[in-house]
Fold this sequence. Notes:
Layout: H1 21-28, H2 36-48, H3 53-73, E1 78-81, H4 92-99, E2 104-109, H5 112-124, E3 128-132, H6 138-142, H7 145-150, E4 158-162, H8 174-185, E5 191-197, H9 205-216, H10 228-233, E6 239-240, E7 246-247, E8 268-274
Parallel strand pairs: 1-2, 1-4, 2-3, 4-5
Antiparallel strand pairs: 5-8, 6-8, 7-8
Amino acid sequence: MPDPIAAVPAPAGADTTRASVAGVYDAFLDGKDNYAVDREVLRRVCKVAPEARDLAVANQAFLVRVCRFLARRLEVTQFLDCGFGLPTVENTHQVVQRINPDAVVAYVGSDPVVLAYGRALLAENERVRFVQADFFQPKSLVESDQLRDCFDFTRPIAFLQVGTLHHYVGDRGGPARIMREYVDHLPSGSFVAISHFLEPENAHSVVAHRMEKAFRSSTLGSGTFRTKAEIEELFAGLDLAPPGVTRCVDWWPDGPRTQPLNQVQHCIAGGVGRKPRKSATSDPQDR
């Protein structure tokens, strides 16, 4: 039986002259749903860092481990994913619904190519929703009737910003403000997972700066590398789960390391935080 997602053609009128985050990510993972302009970004970044594909590989592996942790160990059943891309590899719903078939996943996106895949996904899985919105605009998303129809906001939600915030284009403090607004609206006890390009502040900073320049000077136009302290600011108001913000490859790996890290694997970090529950003296409706 043909895969209903893979069978969806790119929508008419898709802009193939400018790289997209989803298309570039797909190219980095050696997928088939990208254009020449997306592959040109990959080529430019690989020119300054031959192992650049490992940015996406490490990010994707982090996402899978986080989803397993939240669904299996913490029994979270509601997931809001702002990083839905193209169907190169496992998506959030595939990971968590293997653990709990009743888990509900809502993806957020605005890319027209991604929206086409999202509509196909809706047709095959009634516990997957797709909300069309700009996830860099929290107010419009959290007040969306679509989103409110997806979840029970009296129970914890897993909020995923995996590989997204480094593509924010604006002032350097913008992502921290965006996350504070989201955290304010999440139910108490919710979890937040973030991964972000890392400026490692060591000998590998040179390659981080080169990759940042290659990303930002391409038609993609985004790809900011932040320090560990700056990434930790994205978790303001949350209790970080051990080991805190760390390189993605070091966040609860599936097994022992069998070979040294390459320079690129030092340049992407992630973590998971939990929004504290209200104290016993708070309004019961807030707990």
